[in-house]
Amino acid sequence: MKKLITLFTMLFMSACLFAQVSEGEKHALLDFYISTNGDTWNTTWDANTPVAEWHGVTVKNNQVVAVNLMFNNLKGHLPTSIGQLENLQSLELSFNQITGTLPVSIGGMTQLKTLAINGNQLEGTIPESLGNLSNLEQLHLSSNNFSGSIPSSLGGLANLETLNVFDNSLTGTIPLGLSQFSHLKKLVIAENDIIAADTFAQVNLFEVDNDNTLFKTPKTFKEKTVLAIETSDDTD
To answer: The whole model's pTM is what?
Structure first.
């Protein structure tokens, strides 16, 4: 009996040791590594080790659920294949030197809750496909070179809590749908040429107090969710 228990224990440990993410996810990560010059990162990846041991990568139940590579000297572009990380819940690539455009394929990563690519050199328009990220709570795209308008599709992200597009070259108006979201706590649009529509008010945003978000709501906006539009004097 003792030998049998030992055998099962060894088989279990062996299964855990050799458990890996799917080939599709690993391929997407390696594409990403190559396209952002992984060999010159501050902390690189060793492809001969399990993906779970790669710097900044979080694996749960053999699925890649988070990639956090802030301040890691990423240079290059984001490959279309990044959309194959369909189980990803958090993608944090802020403060690197990523260029090119934001791949439309990111709109297929429907488990994403956080997408943060602040302080890079991305350009072009913000893809309409981001409106497919129904679980998205945090969207941070500040200090890039995005142009065009904020996609109207973002007005359908009912779980969005923060939209930060500070310091880009965006124009147009804020999507009307965002004015009706009770979850939205912070809207940062300063240092663009965005026009605030009548559905938004210049108000002060306070910290959340337990379950109550403390907004000062002008009487004319009683029927709407009032959001904070931060100015260039803000540091967040």
So the answer is: 0.79
